[in-house]
Amino acid sequence: MAWVMLAVWAGLFAALSGALAALARHRPEETAALAAALDALLPQTQCGQCEHPGCHPYAAALASGSAAPNRCVPGGSRTRDRLLERLGIDEARERFPAPPVPTPTVARIDEMRCVACTLCLDACPVDAIVGARSFAHTVIAAECTGCALCLPVCPVDCIVLTPAPPLSDGRIPGYPGADDLASVRAHGPH
Ligand code: SF4
Ligand code: SF4
Ligand code: SF4
């Protein structure tokens, strides 16, 4: 009889430990620490293609369990794998297919039509646009990620996305660590 009681108590203790561990996992400071760790794995282009307003908001959603780990488009499968590993759900890879590989694009401003309103300067999350009031603006192609966030703010629609020109070292503009996009550069979209 004693061993039965011992087994019951052991079971209760294990269940309680599991519940406490789950609670501890969701303590705000641990969620914040996890969000910071996940944020460090993201490309930091702040492009919004994950449907969150930047990398840290996406990382925070991941840490709180309200976002899937395969939403970072520029990060591709490599970032998905790193997020899964950090979240401890590496075995579930098939449940989270890699995000689609985008065609690399870069913004271009028609300087003849630009009215120098400066609105696109604030809209660009990576400071890829240079200009000042009363001077035509231009895009630094090597910094532009093609996120298109500057397009809707332009009052005269003089910003367009064009195929990204290759950089001399073969990198994709704005995607310094995304192997998937480097593959696109080498082999074309797929
Ligand atoms: S898609 Fe990736 S790079 Fe873009 S904001 Fe979201 S997490 Fe950051
Ligand atoms: S598409 Fe526009 S907002 Fe996005 S990185 Fe390029 S210049 Fe900046
Ligand atoms: S938003 Fe359009 S018009 Fe205004 S500065 Fe930028 S490119 Fe020029």
Would you mind describing this structure in some detail?
The chain is an alpha+beta fold and 190 residues long. The protein has helices spanning 2-25, 28-39, 55-63, 76-87, 119-123, 179-187, and strands at 105-109, 129-132, 135-139, 159-163. A two-stranded antiparallel ribbon has the order 1-4. It has a two-stranded antiparallel ribbon with strand order 2-3. A hairpin with a 2-residue loop joins strand 2 and strand 3. Helix 2 crosses helix 3 (55-63). It is elongated and about 55 Å long. The termini are far apart. The model is unreliable at 1-24 and 184-190 (pLDDT under 50). One iron/sulfur cluster (SF4) binds next to helix 5.
Please name the defining characteristics of this protein:
alpha+beta, disordered C terminus, 4 strands, binds iron/sulfur cluster, two-stranded antiparallel ribbon
> How much helicity do the residues have?
25-40%
Could you report the average pLDDT, rounded to the nearest whole number?
79
Rg value: 23 Å
What structural class do helix, strand and pairing data support? alpha+beta
What's the order of the H and E elements? HHHHEHEEEH
How many separate helices?
A: 6
> How many β-strand runs?
4
Task: List the ligand species.
Answer: iron/sulfur cluster
Reported for the largest beta sheet, the result is:
2 strands, antiparallel
Low-confidence runs of at least 5 consecutive residues: 1-24, 184-190
How many separate domains? 2
Shape: elongated
Beta-strand residue fraction? 5-15%
- Alpha-carbon distance between the two ends: 66 Å
Strand order of the largest sheet: 1-4
